[in-house]
Amino acid sequence: MMILPISKKVILITGSSRGIGRAMAEHFLQQDYQVLGCSRSPTSLSSDNYQHFCLDISDEAAVKKMFSTIRKQFGRLDVLINNAGIAAMNHALLTPMSTVKNVYQTNVFSAFLFCREAAKLMRKHQSGRIVNLSTVAVAYDLEGEAIYASSKAAVESLTKILAKEFADFNVTVNALGPTPVETALIKNVPAEKIKQLIDRQSIKRLGTFADINHLVEFFIDEKSDFITGQVVYLGGA
Amino acid sequence: MITEQQITDVIYSVIDQMNELRDQNLIDKGLQTPLIGQRSQLDSVDLVNLLLGVEEQLEDEFDISFVVANEKALSLKNSPFRTVKTLTDYLTDSINQ
Ligand SMILES: NC(=O)c1ccc[n+]([C@@H]2O[C@H](COP(=O)([O-])OP(=O)(O)OC[C@H]3O[C@@H](n4cnc5c(N)ncnc54)[C@H](OP(=O)(O)O)[C@@H]3O)[C@@H](O)[C@H]2O)c1
Questions:
Q1: A64 CA from centroid of ligand 1 (Å)
Q2: pTM of the model
Q3: For residue A105, which atom of ligand 1 is closest to its CA?
Q4: Does residue A101 lie within any of the structural domains?
């Protein structure tokens, strides 16, 4: 079967129904990308150049099916943004194992699964860009975030090693660590704690969607083909 | 039921596609062609490309979703990836199970 690739660049953003992923999807729609997104719940985002897959990113069979659809429908994948993630903020002594499993499943296992399947597709065109979402909580070793921060530390390690393994296929892998950004993810974190966190940054303010989009653009630029295995924190963490 | 011949044909067709992109050191199309080890013409990236190409073509031709490098394959004492023949046998068995 011959699959003719479409001419637009194809970008896949996980967790595109709200928050940072949603903002990225809207941003890249304005830039003539074919945007693909996924989340468990449906999205209100609609555009001729947007397609949504309702799935749980930890469901390997569903994810493989989605990648198969992408391959058959578009014949290419240029960029993957591993954005979907969940947080758990609790004292370690009050953290149930089910939370630990959930966080690792979503943040680490699924990120790996998406990297693997995306690189299989990118391999065919000998080019690709993968950007994983970490957090400044890794750099700060934040108390109360043992599970969340360690899951993202694993993502950073994956980023650096996959950068080496995927280099053979001209696929770069980088990570970006945002400072707190106002989304559902941090809505339960007390204002005082957010303020303390921001005070540790070199530049003391909340992050914005624009800050994140800017860094993603840098990583996925064609000219960034010599930049891989890097973790960049916003705000000077 | 997918036959051994059909699977060998898939492997050969992937080898053809790979050879199209090679100027030299073309991969032989034979049942005894070694896929790993010193006598193999494939390096580790070639092997990855071969196995993933086979995975993709099996999916397209027979509408099955199958991960070639699965836990079973990687844990067998004798790697099923030794030659075209052993790969064919392994895939025929696993897929028709
Ligand atoms: N906001 C911050 O301050 C901040 C700071 C540093 C790092 N980050 C990182 O940035 C990323 C995005 O965070 P955010 O603030 O935008 O979070 P958010 O507002 O909670 O959005 C998370 C997105 O991921 C999706 N998602 C979660 N679990 C999923 C699953 N199992 N399967 C499919 N989709 C799933 C959600 O959709 P459904 O619930 O519908 O599935 C949603 O679209 C995360 O990796 C986070 O760790 C955020």
A1: 21
A2: 0.94
A3: 31
A4: yes
CA distances from A91 to A135, A148, A155, B62 (A): 18, 11, 22, 51
3-state secondary structure A138-177: HHHCCCCCHHHHHHHHHHHHHHHHHHHHHHHHCEEEEEEE
The rounded distance, in Å, linking the Cα atoms of A1 and A151 is 40
Please give the tally of structural domains in chain B.
1
> Which chain A residues contact residue B48 at CB under 8 A?
123
Interface size A-B, in CB pairs within 8 Å, comes to 16
Nearest-neighbour CA in chain A from B29: distance (Å):
21
Tally of domains within chain A:
1
Ligand 1 centroid distance, CA of A85 (Å): 4
In this complex, the residue of A64, A65, A120 whose CB is nearest that of residue B52 is A120
Q: Does A2 touch chain B (CB under 8 A)?
A: no
Question: Does residue A4 form part of some domain?
Answer: no
- 3-state DSSP assignment of residue A79: strand
Q: Flag whether A216 is in a domain.
A: yes
What's the CA gap between A27 and A81, in Å, rounded?
Answer: 13
Distance A124 CA to ligand 1 centre (A): 29
Is A2 inside a domain boundary?
no
Q: Do the Cβ atoms of B65 and A65 come within 8 Å? A: yes
Query: Domain limits at B72?
Result: 4-95
How far apart (Å, rounded) are the C-alpha atoms in residues A145 and A168?
35
pLDDT per residue as tens, chain A (237 positions): 556 678 899 999 999 999 999 999 999 999 999 999 999 999 999 999 999 999 999 999 999 999 999 999 999 999 999 999 999 999 999 999 999 999 999 999 999 999 999 999 999 899 999 999 999 999 999 999 999 999 999 999 999 999 999 999 999 999 999 999 999 999 888 899 999 999 999 999 999 999 999 999 999 999 999 999 999 999 998
Q: Does A123 sit within 8 Å of B52, measured CB to CB? A: yes
pLDDT, tens digit (0-9, with 9 covering 90-100), for B41-93:
999 999 999 999 999 999 999 998 888 888 888 888 889 999 999 999 999 99
